[in-house]
Amino acid sequence: MMNKGSQKPAASKGKEPLRFSHPFFTTTPKSQRKEIPKVGKGLAEYPSTALLLEPIPAPQRDPTMTLDQVIGTTGLQQIQQAGQITFHAVGDTGSPDTMTELISGAMAGDYDISNPGTAPAFLFHLGDVIYYDNTDAGYLSQFYTPYKKYPGKIIAIPGNHDGEMFKYDQPGQPGTGQATTLEAFQENFCQKQTGVPPAAKTIYREMISQPAVYWYLNAPFLDIVALYSNVADGPGFISDPNVIGTVQTDWLAKTLKGIAAQRKAGPRKALVIAVHHPPFSGGGHSPSPAMLKDMDTACQQAGIMPDVVISGHSHNYQRFTRYLPFNGVNLEIPYYVVGCSGHGIQPVPHADGARVDDHTFDSSLYGYGYLKLAADPQKIVINFTQVENDGTKQPYDQTIVVDLKTNQIVPA
User: Fold this and answer.
1) 64 lies in some domain
2) Which backbone phi and psi does 400 adopt, to 5 degrees?
3) Beta strands 85-90; 368-375: pairing state
């Protein structure tokens, strides 16, 4: 008779557990793997087939903006007279912590009221404006208060936390999350008319009426195409056959075709594509290769590629260079990750410049800061500024200049 210590365990009920947390930790090529019902052949397929994405709210009007709709006719004329447009870019700021406000103050120092044409035209937020508390109280503490002294207009795309349906519970305030995805984001960024949203309370911040959660900004010297990559912690999705469809990628291809036609007619403008989840990432969060493929497909259909790509999501600073032959030209495209603007930073490996496939990992920082971009008819210039936890700032990384005629990165 077996003693008690040698008895076999009772048979477990249900299916046998996996050796690892998902069935794709394997060296078997994806093409040779067996399709798993409702899951697919790869981890990147799981969020969509498991219906974990949220539908994209329909635009309230054509998702196109012009600069005068953001900063007024006088502001537009000042930019035109200056011969260039400058803007700030940040990501992942949602926090009542002081760091977001310190970075806001550092950016405010870039404004020169005596030269409004060369001051930043606006701040472009790359998503995760709010973490967890998508309510008026959350917007007041995490957005309006930290930016109360920032003089410029703020436009944005949502991040995954802005769209999530997490119910944020506080004592006496049960279930204070948003009722529908991106409801709070739209109330503050996509209101029907330009004005001060109710969530700002006594803080006067005029917010514009963005037409949608994804959009195209047609500005002097610059085109920005801004995409929404949904609620998954990773990877990002701009299309999906089951939940969000291809409405956004169809719009992207159509919009890029229009920009390509304008470029042929002249003048040539810088093209920036922005999306919250980074196409490339070396740390903090993983990259989104399937999303990058969707972006590339739309670009190929239109016959045009971006001059710069900017993202957030990974809570650090990263810069990549992508080397891409396209229509007989060898492109050099900088890809930036700027998810280090207030919420809390994540470690990132040292960037050694080594080439992997079509890109190199050129710079990284486990620290806070913001991006500034300036475009004129000949070039687009990008600088990253590091902000310390006492509010002091200094340049970090080299200045990147993209020549719009050669599509090459040139010396500053």
Assistant:
1) yes
2) -105, 125
3) antiparallel
Q: Is residue 279 part of a domain?
A: yes
User: If residue 253 lies in a helix (H) or strand (E), which one and from where to where?
Assistant: helix 247-265
Q: How far apart are CA 69 and CA 84, in angstroms?
A: 18
Range of the domain at 282: 53-410
CATH code: domain of residue 166: 3.60.21.10
Record the tokens describing residue 386, joined without a space: 């590091």
Supply angle C-alpha 390, 396, 402, rounded to 5: 140
**378: in domain:** yes
Q: Is residue 365 part of a domain?
A: yes
**Strands laid side by side in the 64-66 sheet:** 64-66, 215-219, 222-227, 270-275, 308-311, 329-338, 317-326, 359-365, 355-356
- The residue type at 70: V
Q: Are strands 153-156 and 190-195 parallel, antiparallel or unpaired?
A: unpaired
How many whole angstroms separate alpha carbon 276 and alpha carbon 263?
Answer: 26
Q: N- to C-terminal Cα distance for the chain?
A: 83
Give me 61's structure tokens.
């009007």
For the chain, what is the domain count?
A: 1
**Burial classification of residue 394, based on how many CB atoms lie within 10 Å of its CB (0-12 exposed, 13-18 middle, 19 or more buried):** exposed
DSSP codes of every residue in 90-157: E-----SSHHHHHHHHHHHTT--TT-TTTS--EEEE-S--SSS--SHHHHIIIIITTTTT--SEEEE-
Quick one: tokens of 382? 């990008």
The pLDDT profile of the chain, 412 residues, written as one tens digit per residue, is 344 444 544 444 567 777 777 777 788 887 888 887 766 777 666 665 545 899 999 999 999 999 999 999 999 999 999 999 999 999 999 887 789 999 999 999 999 989 999 999 999 999 999 998 899 999 999 999 999 999 999 999 999 999 998 776 666 666 667 889 999 999 999 999 999 999 999 999 999 999 999 999 999 999 999 999 999 998 999 999 888 999 999 999 999 999 999 999 989 999 999 999 999 999 999 999 999 999 999 999 999 999 999 999 999 999 999 999 999 999 999 999 999 999 999 999 999 999 999 999 999 999 999 999 999 999 999 999 999 999 999 999 999 999 999 999 999 9
